Amino acid sequence: MMDLRELYQEVILDHNRRPRNFGTLEEANRTATGHNPLCGDSVRVYLVVEDNVIKDVRFDGTGCAISRASASMMTDAVKGKTIEEVKQLFSTFHEMVTGHPGQFTEAEEMGKLGVFAGVCEFPARVKCASLAWHTLNAALEARPEPVSTE
Length: 150
Known about the structure:
This protein is an alpha+beta fold. The chain has a single domain (4-148), classed as Sufe protein. Chain: A, CATH 3.90.1010.10. It contains four helices and four strands; from the N terminus they run H-E-E-E-H-H-H-E. It has helices at residues 4-17, 65-78, 83-98, 123-140, and strands at residues 30-36, 41-50, 53-62, 147-148. A four-stranded mixed β-sheet has the order 3-2-1-4, covered by helices on one side. The termini are far apart. The model has no long low-confidence stretch (mean pLDDT 90).
């Protein structure tokens, strides 16, 4: 039987190979760019925000499997949510990936995003997993400067 870590790896690899919501979004009314100089990951997030709700979201860029999978799963998770809900989700995700192994007990409550709970065991990968999220946050706040994980 496949153990939980293997299943999580499969989910991450699937989202890396076939990222959801990948590509530009011409009608975006908010965008932001992020870069992880340590790893070379680069992402651009495109949002359509109406009445405080994310109506559509896409991303493009290049990066490692964790970075692309995180961006892909993030876009699935935030579509249709209010800005306040997304900010709370960002906070919980960030707490999960930056915590200590076994400390974050709400990974199951994170749904599919719980696959990133193990990232906290690999400090160099935290920036890969959180780059798209920081970039999303910058787009929501309409910050003009690019996001950097450094």
